[in-house]
Structures
1.
Amino acid sequence: MLSAHKDRYLRTHHLEGALSDAWQAYCTFVRYLLIRSSIGSVTATGIVLPPSVVPSNWERVSHVAIRASAGKGPQVGGSNNLLLKEPTWGDSAKIVNLVNGLAPANSSTLLGYLGGGLAGPKHCQIVRNACAHRNNQTRASVDALASLYIAFRIKHPVDAMTWKDRTSGQYAFVCWIDDMQAIAEGAVK
């Protein structure tokens, strides 16, 4: 009995770590992509993006993103160098505000991919948040996803990672990663 409990704990611990790592990697990618798009860069297809935020540095982009995430315009001369104040860059519910606030030249591409409707990032975020903030509300958010998968009753939010996609039969977590990869590959064009 003790061994089964230990195995369950280790499984949960490992899955939760993988989930958190995947979510943080996606948010870091979106952050980097939006900053580079806003300070001036060249896309993977060779399109030159002029700066859309001045001064063209990450601190100014961070400030504009924080304000845009809250539905506000930037303040003249405002900047932010505290990473803990930044928005959740990968949050698909805020991506339209972020992109519109930063207004990079590749806005339509960014909106098309980052806000294009692939559910992987959102589902990953919901399950990750339910693991990090365990309460009846976050648990209800995970339970609401069950109808989209071949699902079973979960004991811990992390169990949702092992639900199966109705179309491919893949684990939900694998589908979330596939969606995030497809978004990333398209958004850098």
2.
Amino acid sequence: MKRLLLAATLGLTTLSANATCPVALSGKYSGSGQYTEQAFINNVSVISYIEYHIISVIFSGNTMTVVKEYYAATGTGTPAVQEAVGVSPFTFDKNTCMGQMGSNTDPMYYTVSDSGNTIKVIHGKAPKSQYLYAEAWELNKQWVRYIC
């Protein structure tokens, strides 16, 4: 029994130790993110607004296509709603497992981990925005299961 447990432990360790950066980023991902705004009230910094998002995207070539996105926000007084979808360019560097989404004037940066299965995204205040905000996202690769 001890040998079986040792073999299973070594097998799992080997699988996670061999995680590599993918050559290219492609496929369907889904996940969630949060957008948070800051305001100053009586010279005190406070969180003034938060949005929670769930999203489904497809990476193909050098574009990311948003398939579906829903969000709920503080202060709206409404149920969760569907967000407008679209296409965005992205770059990916297989040497650093990092990349950029969107334009150079207002980029979102991301890192890829777990052999391409997880993407974490950060975005800061847009250059000309009047609001102080930041957002963070985590996306997980969706695999197609074939049943024979």
